[in-house]
């Protein structure tokens, strides 16, 4: 069975054989789907809450929105773990009583509002807007590049790239040399789109690591390092004891 890992290690073109690229692309597509939902719910909650804040109902709406955002943050953490390669775990900055619901409602609300993870999560959701906007670039490049790759087998055809000043931008391919050129342009466009995908997903990954939780692998690595250090200390201690015993035996023999 041929492994794709050596192909993925190639410069420039290896991105095509790297499975992470397509997970990153799926993450950006999901971001485009979820962004209108986030924007609609948050906008409605803010407007409704601010308008009705004079009768205290709006304040309740705002509080519910802030606390409810933790559920959305949990979804985003799962998406980052599955598609961006992170190992994030939820922060434990909530008191146990508030987390399991044994505390009173007022104390639980105060605990949720006082938790730094609540506001970091809101910050991530706000920044996710820019991820969704930037995601349009690689998707548009890929959408225009992929049809051009098949130009040698489907010409004559006309490829539209959008509009400028209300006029459509169209490339009409009706000859073999032009079809070959279109295929080369398509390959370059696909490679550019995939590299843009990884670049934007890398920025989203950094945002997730900074705002959505702590890396579980980092903690595990720290414990492993500690165990290694302890073992080395024990080994050194054992060697020192052995050396001392050997010296004592030599002195006794003399």
Automatic annotation (TrEMBL):
The keyword Transit peptide does not apply. It comes from the Archaea. Keywords: Membrane, Transmembrane, Transmembrane helix. Signal peptide: none annotated. Residues 27-212 form the Putative sensor domain. The chain crosses the membrane at residues 25-48, 54-73, 129-150, 179-201. Residues 230-239 have a biased composition (Basic and acidic residues). InterPro entries: Put_sensor_dom. This is Sensor domain-containing protein.
């Amino acid at each position: 069975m041929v492994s794709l890992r050596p192909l993925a290690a190639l410069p420039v073109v290896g991105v095509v054989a790297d499975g992470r690229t397509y997970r990153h692309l799926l993450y950006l597509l999901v971001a485009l789907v979820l962004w209108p939902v986030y924007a609609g719910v948050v906008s409605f909650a803010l407007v409704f809450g601010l308008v009705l804040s004079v009768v205290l109902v709006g304040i309740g709406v705002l509080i519910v929105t802030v606390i409810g955002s933790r559920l959305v943050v949990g979804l985003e953490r799962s998406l980052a773990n599955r598609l961006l390669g992170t190992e994030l775990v939820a922060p434990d900055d909530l008191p146990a009583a508030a987390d399991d619901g044994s505390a009173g409602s007022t104390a639980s609300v105060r605990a949720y509002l006082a938790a730094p993870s609540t506001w970091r999560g809101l910050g991530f959701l706000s920044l996710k807007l820019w991820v969704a906007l930037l995601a349009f670039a690689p998707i548009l490049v890929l959408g225009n590049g992929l049809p051009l790759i098949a130009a040698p087998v489907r010409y004559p055809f006309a490829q539209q790239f959008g509009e400028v000043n209300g006029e459509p931008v169209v490339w009409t391919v009706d000859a073999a040399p032009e079809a070959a050129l279109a295929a080369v342009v398509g390959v370059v466009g696909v490679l550019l789109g995939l590299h843009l995908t990884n670049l934007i997903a890398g920025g989203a990954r950094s945002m997730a690591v900074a705002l959505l939780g702590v890396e579980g692998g980092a903690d595990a690595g720290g414990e492993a390092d500690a165990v290694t250090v302890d073992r080395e200390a024990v080994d050194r201690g054992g060697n020192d004891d052995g050396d001392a015993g050997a010296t004592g035996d030599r002195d006794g023999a003399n």
